Amino acid sequence: MLNKTIFDLVKNNFKNYIIHNSQHKIDGAIATIGWFFNELMDDKQCFLYNGNFSNSLTAKIIQLNEFGFINQDESIKIQKRAFYLIGECFQNIVKHGDKSSETNNETGKSEFFMTRSSNAQHYITTGNLVKIGEVNKLKEQIDSVNKMDADELKSLYKHVIKTGSISDKGGAGLGLIDMARKSDQKIKYIFEEFSKETSIFYNQIEINSEAKKNISNSDNHIKIEHAISFHRKMIAKNILILLKGDFSEDALVPVLKIFEANLMAANHKSKVMKRLYLVLVELLQNASLHGYSKTESKQGIFTVSESNDIYKISTGNYIENKNIASLKEHLELLNKKNKDELYEEYLKRLQSVNEGNFKAKSIGLIKLARMLNHKIEFEFNKSTEDLSFFAISVTLSS
Asked: Any alpha helices (H) in 99-248, and if so which ranges?
């Protein structure tokens, strides 16, 4: 389910994504994925989205987050609350986002969605354009909601549902009231100027996990400014999707099967999309095979970027230092070979695997290299005496 959802999101965006600034490049992908991994070091899962927003994607966004919450053994009560809020927050962007940026010459993508699970706390952050004239009214609405206790919010919510209008108790819309009620936390917000006519309205809500009851240190809270810095980085690198979480084999194999079964049913069947699917599969499997972990969970990171019909897919994960030399030699060898030589190498390795003389790990990278018209980019950065961060990035063009 997880990776099928990723593919559906990518497919939807590659068809509709609008580039606002041609000078933005998809370069430095290796450094970028390392930067994000370092920033998200303590996160159990993080999902960042900077693509096309539509009603049809809401269910997919929820599905993509389901695996992370279940994998964290979060309570059913917290899961239901989180999934409801994820859907509502995403829908708010769809309903209220100002679409004027799609036709003007301003730079960047103005809409943003993030979910994070870190330090026994879950976060949902959104960003969308609002007109300058609406900023003060929105501030008043949020401030009024943040002053209410649970009983006041419940009463106001019932009043709005019953009458369809706002009472004198507060000027907040139903969506903001519900967000405050369900999260049981104050809504954090920031308005950042986007153009002379618009601002980006960022807001963040928090959901306490069951484990959070034993944590009282407010320093553990992640500030909304952190999410905004992620959005800026995504804009600068044209990143559509980022996912940091469990890349273990048990987590990936079932969803890859669903992924494959749904490929032929996809509406968009261009050659580049089929290649994209295959590359996604190989890179995620590579992260699962080579990734290091002391537990069943293998923490990894994955990004997809797009600019001017050039797609960049990158993954990163820890690897044991003792395995670096052989893996580096293998990748360098693949980068030196042409298509025919890669095919011969693939047949030779496949025969070795069939005879039980060679590990299957090397086959996937050969298959990956055969699908590309560009060399595989990779880098190893030493983290400890035993481990390094292994980042790999590939480029696809139509």
From this structure: 135-146, 150-163, 174-183, 224-237
**pTM, full prediction:** 0.83
Total number of domains in the chain: 1
Token code pair at residue 258? 């669903």
Looking only at Cα atoms, what is the longest distance across the chain?
A: 78
Dist. CA 303–CA 375, nearest whole Å: 18
Segments forming the whole domain that contains residue 109: 50-237
Residue 127 contacts by C-beta under 8 Å, 6 or more apart in sequence? 93, 110, 111, 112, 113, 200, 201, 202, 203, 227, 228, 231
Using CA atoms, how far residue 350 sits from 184, 265, 280, 359, in Å, is 56, 30, 21, 10
Q: Does 277 reside within a domain?
A: no
Q: What is the DSSP letter of 221?
A: S
**For 188-217, how does the pLDDT look when each residue is reduced to its tens digit (9 = 90+)?**
999 999 989 999 999 999 998 766 555 555
Quick one: tokens of 260? 């494959």
Contact 267, 274 (CB under 8 A): no
Q: Examine residue 231 and state whether it is found in any structural domain, yes or no.
A: yes
For residue 217, the domain's CATH number is 3.30.565.10
DSSP 200: E
